[in-house]
Structures are given as C-alpha cells and as structure tokens.
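Exercise 7. Predict the joint structure of the components listed below.
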Amino acid sequence: MANPSAVCNGHLHHHHHQKQNNLLKSGIYKKNGITKGLKKNGISNGTLYKKKFVEHFEQAPMYVAVFTFLGFGVGTVFGYLRDFMRAWGLEKRNVAAEREQQKDFVPLYQDFENFYTRNLYMRIRDNWNRPICSVPGPQFDLMERVTDDYNWTFRFTGRIIKNVINMGSYNYLGFAETDVNALKTVTVELQKYGTGICSTRQEMGTLDKHVELEKLVATFLGVEDAMVFGMGFATNSMNIPALVGKGCLILSDELNHTSLVLGARLSGATIRIFKHNNMQSLEKLLRDAIIYGQPRSRRAWRKIIILVEGIYSMEGSIVRLPEIVSLKKKYKAYLYLDEAHSIGAVGATGRGVVEYFGMSPDDVDVLMGTFTKSFGAAGGYIAGKKDLVDFLRTHSHSAVYATSMCPPVAEQIIRAMKCLMGLDGTTQGLQRVRQLGKNTRYFRRRLHEMGFIIYGNDDSPVVPLLLYMPGKIGAFARRMLEKNIGVVVVGFPATPITESRARFCVSAAHTREMLDTVLNALDELGDFLHLKYSRYSKSSHPELYEETRLELED
Amino acid sequence: MDIKRVKDYIYWLYYQYLLITCSYVLEPWEQSMFHTITVTVFAMVVYTAYVFVPIHVRLAFEFFSQILGGQPESTV
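Solution:
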C-alpha cells in the first residue's frame, strides 16, 4: 500500500503545530520510531479519519536497552545469590513455606516461579500498595510507612502525608469528590436504600434505580438498551463466555486487558492475537479465518468477534476504530469494544471513542465500559441492540449470579451522567470534558518539549513516560513522593521487560498550577535521573529558543 | 562554590552508575560486594591496557608499514 497521503498527513500536522515539527519536516520516511502511526494509515487515512491521528512510539537509543538488560542481569545474579543463601540457611526465609509435618508432601508453594517477585519486586515494593486515607481526588493524603527489613514487612509511623498531588488515579473527569452539594442525591438514596442488596439480579436484586440507570446509559450512548453490572472486571470476564463459545473465533489485540483475556479463555472459543492496533495484521487474520475456516474440519466459523479497547491503559494509544469498522463490515465479523478508559474521557461531549471518530454507535455490536474511571463509582455496563441486552440478561453469568450494583453507587453514576449530558441544568459536565482535553494536550506537549519519551495518542489522558532501567523505577517513584507527588510506576510482568514506565493519568480536576508543579518536578528529576532520551524534541525552554532566533536575525 | 559543584557532579555520576547497573536496589552489603567486584575488574582492564596496548600498537604499525612500504627494514 503506497502512501501518498502519508506525506499529506505530515504536512497537515506541520501546518497546525508549527513550533513543534522540525522532526516531520525532514522526511518522515527516515524517522521510523515516531512515524510508525502515520505511515501505517495508508490511503484510507484521507477518507476514514476526520481529524489527524497522531501516535508516538519512539524507540530509545540502543545503549538504553543494553543497560536495561545489564541491570536485570545484575539483579538476577544477586537473586540467585540470595536464593542460595536462603536455601542453605545462611539467611532467614521470609516467603511462605509449608509446615514441618508437610515437608514430604507434594510442594504447595513453587519456589522457583516466584523468583522475580522474591528477588526483584520485593526490593522496590514500597512503591506499590500505598494506603491512602482520603478521597482520591486531584490531591490525596497518604499514610506514611517505613520498613525495617527491606520491604518484607511495613509498619505505619502514624503520620499522614497531606495533599500529595495525585497523578495515578483514573479520575479523568474529577467526579471522585466529597463536596456535599454534589453528593446530595447520593446521600438521599443512601438513607432511603441503605448499602446492601443481598441478592442477585435474577432473584430480588433488581431495583428501580437499576432500571433508571440502564435507561440513562442507553440514552447517553445513543443505543437501544444497556445493562449494568456490579464489577467492571466481571462484566468482561463473565459476559464474553455468554456471547461466544466453542466453534467461534476471537480476534483479540495483543495488549488487551486481563479481563478480556480471561473472558476469552473461559469461553472456550479459539483465540488469535493480532499485533497491537495493526490493521494489516487483523485483516490477514480475518482473511485466513474466512478462507481456511476451523482448524481440522474446515467448516466456517460460527462467529468471528474482534475484541479491542477504546484506550489501552498501558500504552495510551487509541484504537483505530474507523478502519476496524470497515474491516468488520467487509468480512462480516462482530466488534466488542471495551471503553473502560475512554468513556467520558475522549470525545467532544465525553461519549467515548465512537464520538471521537465521529461514528455512529450502531457500527459497534457490543459496547462495553466501566463506571470506575470517569464516573467515580464502580461497576460496568454492556450496551447495544435490545436483542443483545435481553439475551445477556438471561444468559450471562454475572447477570444471573452476581450481586447487583448497590444503590448509592448507582445514584452516583446517575448524577455524574446527568451532569455530563447537561440534564441537571448546568454546563459543568461539558466544562469538565473540555478541561480534561486542555489538560491532556498541555501535559503531553510540555513533556514532549522537555525531551521525555511518551507513548500514545495526543488526545489520550493516559500518559506513559518511559523509564526503561529497573534501577530507575524505584528511584523515580521514591523521589516523586519526596516532592509530594504520587505516581504509578509499572515494571516487568505488566509491560515488556525493556519498557518499564511511569503512567500518569491526567484529570479534569487538576488545575494548571498542579500540572505545572508536576512538570517542574519532572523536569528536575528528568535531569537528575537522566530520563530525557527523546531524540526529536526541542529544547525545554521555547521562549529562549525564539529569542536566540531573533538575535541571530539582527 | 566551585568545590560544591564538582562534588555534586561527582555524586551525580556515582548515582548514574548506581541506576544503570541496578545496584541502587541492592542492600548495603550487596552493594559493597558489587562495588568491590566492579572496581577490581575495572582496575584489571586498565592495567592490561596500560601494559599491552602500546606494544601491540607498535607491532601493528611496523607490520602494516612493512607491507605498504615494501622496504626490508628487518634485516638490519
């Protein structure tokens, strides 16, 4: 697929962001790292995408990968040394072990499999599972804890670290708040219904609140009907087995969330993986599926379903929905879209990726999402045609057996959704969505200018900042906490081994001052830890850059 | 003030070494062991370079000049 429009796209980008694009001027064909996204759009880019789709997946210089492996090598060597010492009794064992009487039985705890957890994760464990003691709004309070034996046990000092800036919570629209006026209706419902449901949907757990909420979700998304569940993870893992079974084919993205993977495996269907957001790979799989059919009998597949997410939370990339929908229509497959992170966070009025690309919700067969992220509550939903939702009401495990959503939480979602849709009479919802967009673009632009390697689409509020080396993971998180900023760092099992990262979640509740504080801290820390690997950035002081240009022209 | 800047810079270099080799996460006694080994290996490399590299460079230079020049230097 020759790409005449790829150059066209480069020019468009150049016109809109003149300050930022010396990189694209000098030939996008040379710089493979940053233009991977632009290149692969191909001819369809001009007609399918109504606005530019810019994603960055820059590769770090080679020495970074070498040092990362070196770091892991050192950690592994010392891990073996410590394991040896533990096995020979030179050091106390802190992991779970069987009782003395059970030593001759089949081992209960497989020591070797936890090598990584025991020897590498334990050393920097104090950066995860930090208990907080306030609402996770734009700032929160943290309980201080110290360790006396290198992270095997912790104890609380009793002190509370106040007003730590929160860059890790999925609080995209800022609905995690304790403002009494905002939570008035929730308090009323809490006093009316209490907190417990004590039943499943099928028995006595369907309340009028659920019916109201489902109607509201359907109106919000522009579909016929919706169903809500008490837990987002369970929505995926329990409903996919109801939709597909043996003899069906699931085409799932490489980087799908564990809930989707679990649901796919539970269903018993055949699973094939396509490369992340790569339409050529997906098309090839679709063609092979239709041409060759099922593996041994060569019969046609009963159903082909494509599982994708709206925003991938580890990469910050947005799904290429227009291309997937055109593929699905061509090859007659079904599409299951998991909008856990994108509902409320992208789109002009917060209605998710379907609105972001200007498409109609009828194009997607199963719309799934969660209320945990943008709505400040808990739970998930599945929406689509009325027949689909009626089918799920009787056949889904979660609908039949799981306890339903509790009423105050349902009321919180109702009030958040009404605020977003403008039904409460104010424009607060729209303001929040706009503020989130502004914050996202500002944050990403500044990070690019500073020279960090950031993954993902320019419009996604999830911002992964690459750290690469294992030593830097712990150092980064600890130093940011010293500066009173709470971040989430992610390492090996959740990400590829060379690409550990810090993941920021921008929120509409963050003010410009908070973002500036965080950015200044990142600037300092980037210099101190040497994290600014990007080869395509400008200098970090755009004003100075302009000034020197003027001086030269004098 | 200059001394402080130099000291800060040296501390920064040491910190980079700790991060790159992932010895930042090790316990103090492991760090001491690791530093000892690293310094020993580095010292051995430096010593070997000091002793052997000039001799090898001189021999290589003579070898190549003999091939290129073609003059019988070695009979003297």
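Discussion. Chain B touches chain A through 15 residues (CB under 8 Å).
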